Amino acid sequence: MTAALDIQGLRKTYSNGFTALKGIDLRVEQGDFFALLGANGAGKSTTIGIVSSLVNKTAGSVSIFGYDLDNQRELAKAQIGLVPQEFNFNIFEPVVEIIVNQGGYYGMPRSAAYARAEILLNQLGLWDKRHDQAKSLSGGMKRRLMIARSLVHNPRLLILDEPTAGVDIEIRRSMWEFLSQLNADGTTIILTTHYLEEAESLCRNIGIIDKGELIENTSMKQLLNRLDTESYVFDLAEPIESLPVTSNLCHFTLRDPTTLEVVFHKAHYSLNQIFAFLNEHEVNIRSMRNKTNRLEQLFMDLVEGNKA
Amino acid sequence: MNAQQKWVAYYTILVREVLRFTRIWVQTIIPPVITTALYFVIFGNLIGSQIGKMEGHSYIEFIVPGLIMMSVITNSYANVVSSFYSSKFQGNIAEMLVSPTPNWIILLGYVSGGVARGVTVGVAVTLVSLLFSNLYIQHFWITLTIAILTSALFALAGLINAAYAKSFDDITIIPTFVLTPLTYLGGVFYSIAMLPPFWQKLSLLNPVLYMVNGFRYGILGIADISVWISYAVISSFILLLGGFGLYLLNKGIGIRS
What we know:
The complex is a heterodimer of chains A (308) and B (257).
Chain A lengths: L4 E9 L5 E10 L4 E5 L6 H8 L7 E6 L2 E2 L4 H6 L1 E4 L11 H11 L4 H14 L15 H13 L5 E5 L7 H16 L3 E5 L3 H7 L2 E6 L2 E7 H6 L3 E8 L13 E7 L2 E7 L5 H10 L4 E6 L3 H14 L1
Parallel strand pairs in A: 3-8, 3-9, 6-7, 7-8
Antiparallel strand pairs in A: 1-2, 1-4, 4-5, 9-10, 11-13, 11-14, 12-13
Chain B lengths: L2 H21 L1 H4 L1 H18 L11 H32 L3 H4 L5 H27 L10 H25 L5 H15 L12 H7 L3 H14 L6 H25 L6
């Protein structure tokens, strides 16, 4: 099947001589929810900028649903919806006008664009604000406005560059639900984010860019399976004074009399065994939680490894 | 995009541009009308009454076409330079750049917006001039086409200026140091026949001279230069600047990194 996005040998050197992309190859399949991760300045936004025609590439090729961005530019661009990192609408225009105009740039008659705007603004909770100038919206509303704008022409590929940055947790969760439903309805989504929890819970596949190179491109499941240790924090029902026995495959740390941390190798231990072990030593557990985000740890391992 | 979709994209840009300047009409339409009215009062009535006939017309009648054209030039230029640069500055130019709208439609849309403002202000100033003079348009279609072509030309110049501009200061340099001197020296207030031969020849290098004279011919039926030469010069500059503007958009100069 034709890929939603197929990037070959993409390079970008800016006029100041800085090489942001050093020849990356990336393929995102149709229907995927793909996370593109990387530290600040790694090359994520440059990649997105080139795919969405906002940045000129130095070399390489980009095709979107089989349409070459150089030779079939109009068709390729018609497939994409972009939610950029920065707010980039005319703040003096009314909300609905921003969306209707965006539809117009894709050739949608005003009546059709308005009807579509009504659906999207209702879905994103902005219909009541449709006549307000965009500058009067809160940060979360502005993010949702950019999502509505990007979807007005029903794109097959939606690219979101840190869409939930600076958004409170409630709105972030509602945006996650909206995006998950959109993906379930068939829209391919590429997401960049600094919230790795977001990538882990939403995305099926992942690419990691570091210093202009794609250092990882795999499924989320495979990547997380590489993590050979698990870390948990137990809140104890009763305080303890001494630690249970430890080994190099299972390590306990008593943070305070009622907080116990455990790190164990997944290949050698299961949580059932840990519980049985603690039960045997009369350690009563009230609750537990993951110590760190798993993807965050892998991400750090990969980026650190690339530095070495 | 098919032809209908291209039309929709063009119409969208045009409507957006027209709404932009009509929403703030107190800032865009009224000031040039007031400024030109002051010109009429001071240069036309007060000083002009001391000046004799100019090629068979009173001085105020003689300067009316030039003053209207001056408003058309400055407003068509200002509309596009400010709109295009603001789009760059706020980043909303990306709305068009990510879309399949061809660059020539974007160019045409902005230029049409500039023409719309230039002609709107031109009409407003013309109506005000009727309070000060007994204006009768001799050649309506020549007047209208020269006004439209001139505003298109300066709308293109505004777009090129905005593409290169990196700050708000950069969009005021050309109007201040190039546009205003060329306009004032373009025969708005005098006939070049009044100048010494050397300055007459030098004036012929000023493109604004051809626009003012073409427009004056349309309204008064008099001009220092053949109206056909005016058409030829304006059209040539439109092709030149239009081609260059399209080149900038295609290459992404000033708008893509």
